[in-house]
Design goal:
alpha/beta, UDP N-Acetylglucosamine Acyltransferase, domain 1, ten-stranded parallel beta sheet, 4 helices, flat
């Protein structure tokens, strides 16, 4: 697939600065550019690469002002990062999808398989499971009995959808993710811990992407919900009976404890932890390693948190500044204690 700078500009609603007929056929990071490659510059931290890159075309923001000549053709757009994402989606959509069911796959006789699917060697589809049109199940992907996988969903190697769970359309389940394992429910007894049966399911709505080795537990009763457009990074834990609101994003190693409800358009950085039975409002933003232990402020939404326990950024900045002074304050306290003792002894 070959595109000219002019075609790229037309698709991204940009303008060409340089040779509009130069062609590209691949993508490359700006620091690793080669002839025939398309790169982008969105973060000015990488600006110095643009003057020496071998890439033929570079997407830049309209307000970018080079400090010296650039040999590559520039395509100026409103947002270079969004434009390259749009082009990557176009590039991927033009790749021919694999179809067909491999003879080494196992499909239960009662399963329902849609049109134009790809089911790889050693993939498993259980009794009464439903696989929608255009789905791709890679090697060792497993769909349990009575589970439903919507149209054009991709399940990569070793991803697992347990029995009865529901996956929407246009979802991506990366390698090793597990949808519908039992929630962590045990009742303490004098003899130990007695398992509480988890008889609910997991419901994943449309356009959700779930990272590698991420786990979403089935509910005790009812359903654990991941609403439309949610994006979960690798190694995320969603406990039983949680609801993750539409278009929320969570970075790696974040976790939400049982029965917490998370609103729409939230953003959680890496290693964010949220305790159970809370209500988190819409547009709540948590910096990395934030711990949310109460919902008095969080349930109102439109707020940011940092630190553990999570506080608003201004308060976190005060606490951090005070913490840096702690060693000196301890020394001052020791000096004051000695002075007080000396005054007592001199009476």
């Amino acid at each position: 697939m070959v595109f000219t700078a002019q075609q790229i500009a037309a698709y991204t609603e940009g303008t060409v600065e340089g040779d509009e007929n130069v062609t590209v056929s691949t993508f490359a990071k700006i620091e690793e550019g080669t002839k025939g490659a398309l790169s982008f510059l969105a973060n000015l931290q990488y600006e110095h690469y643009i003057y020496d890159t071998e890439s033929s075309v570079v997407l830049v923001n309209k307000d970018f002002k080079p400090s010296r000549p650039v040999k590559a053709t520039l395509v100026r757009v409103d947002n270079a990062y969004e434009s390259v994402a749009k082009l990557l989606q176009l590039y991927q959509s033009m790749e021919q999808k694999r179809t067909g069911i491999d003879s080494l796959a196992y499909i239960a006789p009662t399963a329902k398989i849609g049109k134009d699917v790809y089911i790889a060697p050693f993939a498993v589809v259980g009794d009464n499971a439903v696989i929608g049109d255009g789905c791709q199940l890679h090697p060792h992907a497993t769909v349990g009995e009575n589970a439903k996988v919507g149209e054009n969903t991709i399940m990569y190697s070793n991803s697992v959808v347990y029995h009865d769970c529901i996956i929407g359309n246009n979802c991506i389940l990366h390698a090793g993710c597990v949808i519908g394992a039992d929630g962590f429910g045990f009742a303490p007894t004098p003899e130990g811990y007695e398992k509480i049966p988890q008889i609910g399911i997991v419901t994943i709505e449309d356009n959700v992407e779930i990272g590698a080795n991420t786990c979403i537990d089935r509910s005790t009763m009812g359903s654990t919900y991941v609403r439309k457009g949610v994006k979960l990074d690798n190694l995320v834990q969603i406990a039983h009976n949680v609801e993750v609101g539409a278009h929320t994003v969570m970075s790696a190693q974040s976790g939400i404890a049982g029965s917490t409800k998370v609103g729409q358009w939230c953003m959680f950085g890496g290693q964010v932890g949220i305790v159970g039975h809370l209500h988190i409002g819409d547009k709540v933003y948590c910096g990395g390693k934030t711990g949310i232990t109460g919902d008095k402020i969080a349930k109102k939404g439109n707020v940011s948190f940092m630190g553990y326990p999570g506080v608003e950024p201004r308060e976190f900045a005060k606490q951090s500044a005070a913490l840096k002074q702690l060693p000196d304050l301890l020394k001052e306290i020791q000096v004051l204690k000695r002075e007080i003792e000396e005054l007592k002894n001199n009476k």
